[in-house]
Amino acid sequence: MTKSHTHVSSDPLQQIRWLTYMMFFMFAMTSDAVGMIIPELIKEFGLSMTQASAFHYAPMALIAFSGLFLGFLADSLGRKTTIMLGLLIFSASCFLFAFSTSFAFFLLLLCCIGLAIGLFKTGALALLGDISHSNEDHTKTMNKVEGFFGIGAIVGPALVGILLVQNVSWTYLYIIAGVMCLILAFLAWHADYPPVVKTTAKPTSLATTMKMIKDPYALGFSLAIALYVATEVAIYVWMPTLLKDYTGSWPLLATYALTIFFVLRAAGRFIAVWLLNRYSWQGVMAYLSLGIALCYVGTLFGGVDWAVSLLPLSGLFMSMVYPTLNSKGISCFAVQQHGAVAGVILFFTALSAALAPLFMGMISDYFGHVRYGFYLATGFAVILFLAMLFNYFKDPSATALQQGNPVTE
């Protein structure tokens, strides 16, 4: 009986992996295109930078809420049900973009999308733990998933650019994403998901998630990820605005800076698997976070003339930080807790993604230029490097990762 459980066909798992890859691809298409949409919103609705940034922080706030308060559903209802629910809400919200031209209604729809993303993303992140044989395997799989996220982040802004050149509304990006999401929901419905590991312990609930926030490993990895996210969102939310008035010697580089950033980030995530096979993840995190910090410090001193090359280059250094920290944080816990801990990490991820660009917009409005917001982002980048340096020398999660490493037969 146990043999039939352990000898699972690789085909269903491969199908599930590809479904997960495409979910992250679709999510990135919409979330990482916001930097291209914000200038259009400012022009179309006469908004300030702080007001326009709501297009980013509103859905991120709902992702944070969903991750914290609904993340346990991936453990209690099951991965498949939670993912299906999220995909259907996402799809319905995207289609409603065709029926309004109101900024307030757009924000409401984005909040629904954020809630949906929190559901299917916690389900998908927990699922990755189910189908991984060790925390090393989990880290490599997470980097592959984020690689497809990186590709979606290239396609989304490019698609918005094509729509705008053709004088077609940017809202069609969401219509396209809605169609893709409906197809993914149909495929997920027919997919054979592995069962969640059952134990005699008390079923996972919201109370379990609340207790997990106090856990030093969940909190430590969540705060490190929050620092990273604050440096990343600064690029795709505000870099297009920073480089909008660039008049230097590299106008073409300024035009495609965001695309270059996303290409380098996506490429780096696939290279990450190669790096992780050869070097310790602690050392790689320290060096990559140093690269990010140097790109920001260089921008601080060199201004927009240096930013046009340094900020896109930071994508290469950012590539494997998030998926590696995310997977290590989840791998510190038993499989039956993966949904809850993924929800906690997602809460801090989305909260940082919501607040960091908002504060950058407020600072930029106060001082009169978007470059002042990047002073704050530089501070986040430096603190992240110091945190990764501490992790490299002290390795505080070594014991928890060893205990959480599942034994394969």
From TrEMBL:
GO terms for cellular component: endomembrane system; membrane. Its main location: membrane. The keyword Transmembrane applies. GO terms for molecular function: transmembrane transporter activity. Coiled coil: none annotated. Pfam families: MFS_1. It is found in: Endomembrane system. It is a multi-pass membrane protein. Belongs to the major facilitator superfamily. This is MFS transporter.
